[in-house]
């Protein structure tokens, strides 16, 4: 038989000892007598590297410490050779069923290679580098599925299942059943870790746990704490033998347990007020501290009684034996009347190990006479009483470990006076008085205290007023209903923030189909982001079903135009270049362009901005003059596009507009035309709407002039006025009831936008939500302090991301937030860099939304160019960019190769998913001119193209991961960030379309390399448009940044104020404004009485440290 402690932590976890390295884990396992110890923290890359360096394979799936690293101090026999099994603990913090969940899970794996595989996949979820026990915003059910997909032989164990803050059944953030947590993954769970504050009899009271092996581990944060709890296993010493014992119970002999009273969460209580209560006392107190009135920490015993369906003392039929022990240093200290950490206790401990062997042997098997000889009669008597369970406890509560009493001072004096130990009747240790009853708090008498925990919920009522309406009208207020049911041929709905704009637009479509019998194929809904289009489609599916929703044309202006162009047989469409493809082309045009003597040649990026402004204007000739762009340079750029068979982002709209104007036959899909975010249309988009509606029946536009924030793209907040003038029979409807924000948040927003309405035309917005807290203002000393404050404040809001935070002043109160409840908004992408660093250090998962400079990185440009050219061989610009960026080919060589590939491959590349490449590609390289064929970079590219063509149906993540490995990009920061975008997409075309056509709000990446279901959102103010969050941090409110001032750019103060207004009104319940020195002048628009000044963490530090000192780190 061997003893196994499978759940521990290394020095790479928070609040752990620096001695948490293989050498000392091996040493202390030998001192304890542990035959198998978990490595802990397998997800941390530096720890895995250390394990590879210092461990050597032993039996199947197990390791031992290499001899060169072994520490020998004479305290234990050298013959003992502990084994290691790869293990780790993962913290999942996420929202499920309307509640924030914080669940810890232990994972055992058959090897370090498997740990590498699993970690690589989990790195997609979040940051694995800042903590050995990573915090992932991932549902525990999904975590187990991912692990088993990567390693089917993994062992999955929910950790310390009763701990109040971070566990499966935790009182504050857990579930009531295993099935609720793990859903369809429940059958793959065979064991549960019971934790220090419960013992097997407590767990036997739940029949739901009868089929599980109840395991116990130390969760040690230092090597000295190994074996506080452990498992006894009889069987083959191997991973498969361990797996069999845990999952079937065969060979699982039982557990070594803490006395549950010693656990620091056994009873209820409030440590700051020194209140320790039994479950019945806590219920009578109403769950609050009798001294201060704050919420009590509900202990393990209380939670067990809540879920138990058996009485105390019930016995499980297939139960395993267990022993309750106390760590030997504590036994020595309590038997001698000294601290367990004292020098005297330490010397006795070392002496015992040298004389009698490992700690478990001493506690469980050594003869008492031998212990007496080695350590004296007091220690021998102490061991005897522990073995017989005759010890006294002041139970642990609210993070405070229980206090042990084995021998009283009188008994210590008595035994210290004995020459030898002879246990017998009449000794002081055998005749202890019964423990005096603790004085009970003065609670009111209740016949049935449990009734205090029940709440009566009011039953939902169905309004008779809406009972007879069609489904589309259910839940609409009168203003929304007027908008939805209007039969005006041209309706303009002005909808302020939070007034239900998307709901109204969706209901309008459903109403057209349900009540007015419009055909789904006659309806087109135009949005400004791909995400908004997808959200609208999902809402319509819920209302109308998938089949009907699929028949409705929903998309952005560009996607609708692309679809129209592709459907026209005679329409000449080119390859769409992304922003950086256009930039490359602009550079080429400028190199060959000879300006007139008086003409100043612009830079490539400036040229693109000027060209875009001209193309999107109502009068191109006037725009050329306004932009200072010569007609010849404009024509040269447009000609270069045509010569390469390409088009830019603006050409999509212009070509579609030309097609719409030339087309004689009306398009049925535009019979009913609906437009979201109408205030953001530019002149070309406006003309498209007029052309599409020319033979249509109705046009319905909805938006808010006060949220017009794309003036730099040609949009105009006066578009609603123009709409009323240009569309016959146009009418206007206003939505005034704000359902999103609290009155306090709205009160801050309105004075800001009022500055743009000096004529008094500002429409009133009425807050529907109940009153909340005042928005906060934090004045930071610098940008770093601002980022630290935000990270710490988020930690506090979620109720702490680890045990220390949960007990400190960082605790988030009665209603902790989920990570996905929180957004951080900023004016420019550069501001995100420092925020990301601080969030990563804090261990907070996040996603970043927006088109940052990542797509300009050469590695990224080359990668995207490679895959885009495979999907579109005619895209010579992409292949040219790839060859130059990845293999350093010359521009001339790259263009020639791209041209040859387009000619050879067009029509011959395989469809996604075909097994073999087209025959034309097989001979492509041989058909190249000799000078191209001899180029090494071209040959490497051709070989890779041949291998990737049959794989284009694979997920973007899989393709990019393989590409990165083959080209030496693994670990590259730009490639990692590109992967974090790719994993949000199911197909390669969708991924490439997003980075090409996606707006600011469409391009997202996670803190890791996959979608994070529960993560803080980081985005620019522009990217936040159309979104809402319970909590919003609006950061960097600094002069020069808001309004944004930049050389060569005229500041539009009115639009910048609208942008600030948009940011404020993203918040539903809490708004925190942060400003470094020299705050934004826009803050002066908000009366000081509407803001509360926030104290930063540096001012709370003394209180925070005082709380930290009260918590045991190990």
Structure description:
The chain has 1114 residues and is α/β, with parallel strands linked by helices. 39% of the residues lie in helices and 14% in strands. Helix 43 links the parallel strand 33 and strand 34 (1067-1075). Residues 419-468, 907-920, 1000-1012 and 1098-1114 have low confidence and may be disordered.
Individual helix count: 44
Give the number of DSSP strands. Answer: 35
Radius of gyration: 35 Å
Largest sheet: 9 strands, mixed
- State mean pLDDT (0 to 100 scale): 85
Which geometry do the CA atoms define? globular
- Terminal Cα separation, in Å? 28 Å
Strand content: 5-15%
Strand-pairing-aware structural class: alpha/beta
The level of helicity is 25-40%
Low-confidence segments: 419-468, 907-920, 1000-1012, 1098-1114
Concise account of the structure shown:
With 1114 residues, the protein is of the alpha/beta class.
List keywords for this structure.
1114 residues, alpha/beta, disordered C terminus
Q: Which secondary structure elements does this structure contain, and how are they paired or packed?
A:
Blueprint: E1 2-5, H1 22-32, E2 36-38, H2 45-54, E3 55-57, E4 63-65, E5 83-96, E6 99-109, H3 112-122, E7 135-136, H4 140-150, E8 155-158, H5 178-182, E9 191-193, H6 200-204, E10 213-215, E11 230-233, H7 239-248, E12 252-257, E13 268-270, E14 275-277, H8 279-284, H9 300-307, E15 322-324, H10 328-336, H11 343-356, H12 359-364, H13 368-375, H14 377-388, E16 392-394, E17 403-405, H15 409-416, H16 464-467, H17 478-485, E18 490-495, H18 501-514, E19 523-527, H19 530-544, H20 546-551, E20 553-556, H21 557-567, E21 575-576, H22 579-592, H23 604-615, H24 620-627, H25 631-643, E22 646-647, H26 649-662, E23 672-675, H27 683-692, E24 698-703, H28 719-726, E25 730-735, E26 737-738, H29 743-754, E27 766-767, E28 776-779, H30 783-797, H31 803-807, E29 822-826, H32 832-842, E30 846-849, H33 858-871, H34 876-887, H35 891-905, H36 919-922, H37 924-927, H38 930-933, H39 936-948, H40 956-966, H41 973-982, H42 988-997, E31 1004-1006, E32 1016-1020, E33 1029-1034, H43 1053-1064, E34 1067-1075, E35 1092-1093, H44 1101-1109
Parallel strand pairs: 1-2, 2-5, 5-7, 9-10, 12-15, 18-24, 18-25, 19-20, 19-23, 21-22, 23-24, 26-27, 28-34, 28-35, 29-32, 29-33, 30-32, 33-34
Antiparallel strand pairs: 1-11, 3-4, 5-6, 6-8, 11-12, 13-14, 16-17, 30-31
Helix pairs in contact: 2-3, 3-4, 10-11, 10-14, 11-13, 13-14, 17-18, 18-19, 21-26, 22-23, 22-25, 23-24, 26-27, 29-43, 30-32, 33-34, 34-35, 40-41
């Amino acid at each position: 038989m061997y003893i196994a402690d499978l759940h521990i932590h290394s020095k790479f976890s928070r609040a752990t000892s620096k001695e948490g390295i293989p050498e000392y884990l091996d040493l202390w396992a030998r001192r304890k007598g542990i035959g198998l110890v978990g490595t802990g923290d397998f997800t941390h890359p530096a720890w895995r590297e250390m394990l590879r360096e210092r461990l050597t394979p032993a039996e199947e799936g197990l390791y031992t410490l290499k001899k060169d690293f072994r520490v020998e101090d004479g305290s234990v026999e050298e013959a003992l050779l502990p084994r290691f099994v790869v293990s780790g603990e993962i913290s999942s913090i996420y929202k499920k069923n309307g509640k924030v969940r914080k669940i810890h899970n232990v994972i055992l794996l058959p090897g370090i290679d498997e740990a590498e595989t699993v970690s690589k996949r989990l790195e997609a979820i979040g940051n694995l580098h800042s903590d050995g026990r990573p915090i992932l915003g991932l549902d525990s059910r999904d975590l187990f599925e991912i692990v088993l997909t990567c390693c089917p032989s993994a062992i999955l164990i929910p950790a310390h299942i009763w701990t109040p803050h971070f566990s499966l059944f935790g009182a504050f953030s857990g579930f009531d059943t295993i099935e609720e947590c793990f859903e369809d993954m429940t059958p793959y769970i065979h064991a549960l870790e019971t934790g220090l504050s419960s013992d097997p009899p407590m767990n036997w009271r739940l029949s739901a746990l009868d089929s599980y092996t109840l395991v116990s581990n130390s969760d040690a944060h230092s090597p000295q704490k190994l074996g506080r709890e452990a498992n006894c296993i009889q069987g083959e010493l191997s991973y498969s033998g361990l797996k069999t014992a845990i999952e079937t119970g065969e060979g699982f002999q039982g557990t070594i347990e803490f006395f549950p009273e010693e656990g620091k969460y056994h009873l209820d209580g409030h440590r700051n007020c020194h209140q320790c209560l039994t479950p019945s006392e806590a219920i009578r107190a109403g769950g609050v501290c009798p001294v201060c009135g704050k919420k009590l920490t509900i202990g393990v015993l209380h939670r067990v009684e809540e879920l138990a369906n058996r009485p105390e003392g019930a016995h499980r039929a297939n139960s395993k034996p267990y022993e309750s022990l106390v760590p030997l240093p504590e036994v020595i200290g309590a038997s001698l009347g000294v601290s367990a950490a004292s020098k005297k206790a330490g010397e006795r401990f070392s002496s015992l190990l040298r004389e009698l062997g490992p700690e478990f042997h001493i506690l469980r098997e050594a003869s008492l006479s031998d212990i007496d000889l080695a350590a004296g009669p007091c220690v021998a008597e102490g061991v005897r009483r522990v073995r017989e369970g005759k010890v006294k406890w002041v139970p642990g509560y609210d993070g405070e470990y229980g206090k042990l009493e084995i021998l009283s001072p009188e008994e210590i004096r008595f035994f210290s006076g004995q020459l030898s130990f002879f246990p017998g009747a009449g000794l002081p240790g055998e005749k202890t008085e019964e423990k005096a009853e603790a004085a009970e708090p003065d609670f009111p008498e209740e016949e049935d205290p449990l009734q205090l925990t029940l709440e009566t919920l009011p039953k939902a009522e169905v309004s008779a007023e809406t009972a007879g309406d069609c489904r589309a009208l259910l839940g609409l207020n009168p203003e929304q209903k007027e908008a939805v049911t209007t039969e005006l041929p041209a309706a303009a709905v002005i909808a302020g923030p939070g007034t239900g704009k998307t709901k109204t637009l969706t209901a309008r479509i459903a109403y057209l189909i349900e009540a007015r019998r419009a055909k789904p194929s006659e309806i087109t809904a135009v949005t400004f982001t791909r995400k908004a289009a997808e959200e609208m489609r999902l809402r319509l599916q819920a209302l109308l079903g998938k089949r009907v929703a699929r028949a409705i044309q929903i998309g952005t202006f560009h996607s609708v135009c692309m679809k129209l162009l592709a459907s026209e047989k005679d329409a000449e469409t080119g390859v769409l270049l992304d922003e950086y493809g256009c930039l490359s082309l602009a550079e080429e045009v400028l190199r060959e362009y000879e300006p007139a003597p008086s003409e100043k040649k612009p830079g490539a990026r400036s040229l693109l901005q000027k060209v875009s402004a001209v193309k999107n204007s109502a009068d191109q000739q006037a725009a050329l003059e306004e932009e200072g762009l010569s007609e010849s340079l404009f024509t040269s750029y447009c000609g270069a596009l045509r010569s390469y068979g390409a088009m830019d982002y603006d050409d999509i709209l212009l070509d579609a507009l030309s097609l719409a104007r030339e087309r004689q036959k009306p398009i049925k899909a535009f019979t009913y035309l609906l437009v979201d975010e109408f205030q953001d249309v530019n002149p070309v988009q406006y003309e498209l709407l007029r052309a599409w509606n020319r033979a249509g029946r109705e046009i319905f536009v909805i938006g808010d002039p006060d949220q017009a924030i794309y003036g730099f793209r040609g949009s105009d907040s006066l578009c609603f006025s123009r709409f009323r003038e240009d569309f016959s029979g146009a009418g206007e409807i206003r939505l005034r009831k704000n359902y999103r924000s609290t009155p306090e948040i709205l009160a801050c927003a309105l004075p800001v936008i009022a500055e743009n309405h000096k004529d008094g035309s500002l429409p009133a917005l009425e807050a529907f939500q109940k009153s909340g807290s005042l928005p906060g203002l934090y004045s930071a000393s610098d940008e770093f302090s601002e980022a630290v404050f935000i990270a710490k404040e988020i930690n506090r809001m979620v109720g702490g991301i680890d045990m220390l935070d949960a007990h400190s002043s960082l605790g988030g109160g009665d209603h902790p937030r989920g990570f996905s409840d929180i957004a951080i908004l900023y004016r420019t992408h550069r501001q995100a860099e420092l925020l990301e660093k601080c969030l990563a250090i804090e261990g907070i998962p996040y996603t970043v939304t927006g088109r940052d400079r990542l797509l300009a990185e050469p590695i990224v440009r080359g990668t995207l160019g490679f895959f885009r050219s495979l999907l579109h061989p005619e895209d010579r610009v992409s292949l040219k960019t790839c060859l130059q960026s990845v293999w350093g080919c010359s521009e001339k060589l790259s263009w020639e190769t791209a041209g040859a590939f387009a000619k050879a491959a067009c029509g011959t590349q395989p469809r996604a998913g075909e097994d073999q490449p087209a025959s034309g590609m097989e001979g492509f390289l041989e058909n190249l001119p000799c000078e191209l064929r001899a180029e090494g970079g071209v040959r490497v590219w051709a070989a890779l193209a041949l291998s990737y063509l049959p794989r284009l149906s694979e997920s973007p993540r899989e393709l990019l991961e393989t590409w990165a490995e083959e080209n030496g990009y693994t670990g590259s920061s730009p490639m990692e960030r590109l992967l974090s975008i790719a994993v949000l997409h199911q197909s390669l075309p969708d991924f490439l379309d997003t980075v090409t056509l996606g707006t600011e709000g469409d391009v997202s990446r996670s803190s890791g390399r996959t979608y994070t279901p529960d993560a803080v959102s980081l985005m620019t103010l522009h990217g936040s448009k159309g979104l809402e969050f319970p909590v919003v941090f609006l950061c960097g409110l600094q002069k020069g940044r808001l309004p944004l001032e930049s050389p060569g750019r005229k500041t539009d103060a009115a639009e910048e104020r609208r942008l600030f207004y948009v940011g404020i009104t993203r918040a539903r319940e809490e708004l925190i404004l942060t400003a470094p020195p020299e705050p934004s002048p826009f803050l002066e628009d908000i009366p000081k009485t509407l803001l509360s000044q926030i104290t930063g963490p540096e001012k709370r530090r003394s209180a925070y440290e005082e709380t930290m000192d009260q918590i045991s780190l190990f």
